[in-house]
Amino acid sequence: MTAAIVLGQQAPARRRPHSWTLILGLVLVGAVAATALLSLVWLPYPPDDTTGGRLEEPSWQHLLGTDKLGRDLATQVMIGARIALTVGLGSVLVGALIGITIGLLAAFATPWLDDTISAGLDVVIAFPVLLLAMLIVAAQGASLLSVMVAIGLAMSAVVARLTRVLTKRVLGEQYVTAARTSGTRWPGIVARHIMPNIWPTLSVNLALQFGVAVLAEASLSYLGLGAPPPNASWGRLLQEAQGTFVTAPVGAIAPGLALIALVLGVNFVADGLRDIADPARRRSR
Amino acid sequence: MSLLAVSALTVRTAEGRAIVDDLAFDLAAGGRLGIIGESGSGKSVTSLAVTGLLPPALTVEGSVLLDGVQIVGAPERRLVGMRGRVASVVFQEPLTALDPLMRIGRQVAEPIARHRGLRGADLRGAVADALAEVALDDPRITRAYPHEISGGQRQRAAIAIALASRPRLLIADEPTTALDVTVQAQILRLLDDLVEARGMALLFISHDLAVVSAMTSDVVVMRAGVAVERGTVAGMLAAPTDPYTAELVRSARSLDDRLGRR
């Protein structure tokens, strides 16, 4: 009897058709990631090779032309992909670690402490991520690490607030009470019930934050607060190509398109991830 | 000595309203007791108070002695050791009492691993046994998520989880209310058999006089947080002393009559 019921219940649990946004997102992010990986082992020219003519048109020698110092632009864009991904991942890692910790603390805290943390988070969130990151970079000095820490810290408030709300919702669920009645300790409840249940929403947000971090890094570099040379960030390429945009537009268009591809791709992936991470949602499609 | 001794238990909201007012009852090891009451009568709050799981906003006074240990005001550290081992709870709505993102097998495995220290193949075997005990011995159920199985199967899984830690007291808080009537009867029979076979004590909470009388003969009737009557179901049916119990009996009778006439 039970078997029959199970058969009837499980039949519809087929894989739903693939999500096109997820595939498109993975293709875009994958292309950038592949470029970044390739740049580790092979570059068309050494990054500081200025033997090309200045501001050359795209050609077979220089696929994207050269910049005003005669450096190969394709080489610079490839290195930029590496920097964008490194900063994106690093920032999200910093932001997630700090944000999730603070968010969990607030969710478990006494009402008074919870209110205090929440008020603090609201103040931090009121500042734009870029402005906060600029303050931190200005205080610490510009380096790849300080850029990651700065953007990560700035985004951690948003992650913390989301974690707090999600955790509180899960804490109110009966399965947490049920787990506690069977003697599960708090660390076990956090690891086995809270984290898996807030992760679908949280991971989508972290993926979106990755896009924000990539943009923030490009903006910082554009303003001269990013990783110093020889790190060729897309933001700095944009800034350098700005003066010669009319005569050599490729210099601005190439890093700009790369930036758009990565940020759009990450957002598409975030959309697709949401459906995958949640079996209940998977069923409903 | 009784396994569970509740005396002068009072639970208040932050505003000072008493949800449970001066409640007292005793439950011997291996004994059974029913608590009957309408929603809002304080039944479920009582079951949470017994396991020390009341939300912090509620204040508790009085005494709850579980296996000789005072639960009221006890530190979380001491309570964690008793939950599951001494007392387990089966809740009303199995869909919300099971973690939606964890496979049934893992949810059953967890208390077994924690309380009996089993790992690997031993643990898998114990999980299969625990599920077989509640007539869910199908490997597909072990791998299923809660939303993939039926309500009755979910409640069976919840019972397996509650019993996995080998408790001496099972608290069943409206365990069949969310189920179809036919499934309800199966679950009641299953609970009855398991409690009998293991010699567990049973605290059975329900709004339904007929359901309670199927499980136990001793009952406490609660209304608005107060125990208005206590005694055997038979005595209550014959001669209810409290007007509320009389009303309860009358409505149960009239339902029976209407069902009988069909």
TrEMBL record, chain A:
Domain of life from the UniProt record: Bacteria
Protein name: Peptide/nickel transport system permease protein
Places the protein is found: Cell membrane
Keyword Transport found: yes
Ranges where the ABC transmembrane type-1 domain occurs: 81-270
Annotated SUPFAM superfamilies: MetI-like
Family, per entry: Belongs to the binding-protein-dependent transport system permease family.
Keywords: Cell membrane, Membrane, Transmembrane, Transmembrane helix, Transport
Organism from which the protein derives: Conyzicola nivalis
Membrane topology: Multi-pass membrane protein
UniProt main location, coarse: membrane
Segments passing through the bilayer: 20-45, 83-107, 119-138, 144-162, 202-225, 245-273
From TrEMBL, chain B:
Pfam family membership, one: ABC_tran
Record keywords: ATP-binding, Cell inner membrane, Cell membrane, Membrane, Nucleotide-binding, Translocase, Transport
Predominant location: membrane
Superkingdom per UniProt: Bacteria
Lipid bilayer topology: Peripheral membrane protein
InterPro entries named among the record's database cross-references: AAA+_ATPase (IPR003593), ABC_Ni/Peptide_Import (IPR050388), ABC_transporter-like_ATP-bd (IPR003439), ABC_transporter-like_CS (IPR017871), P-loop_NTPase (IPR027417)
ABC transporter domain segment(s): 4-249
Compartments in which it is found: Cell membrane
SMART domains assigned to the protein according to its UniProt record, in alphabetical order: AAA
Record-level Gene Ontology MF annotations: ATP binding
Family from the record: Belongs to the ABC transporter superfamily.
Protein name, UniProt field: Peptide/nickel transport system ATP-binding protein
Organism of provenance: Conyzicola nivalis
Lineage summary: Bacteria, Bacillati, Actinomycetota, Actinomycetes, Micrococcales
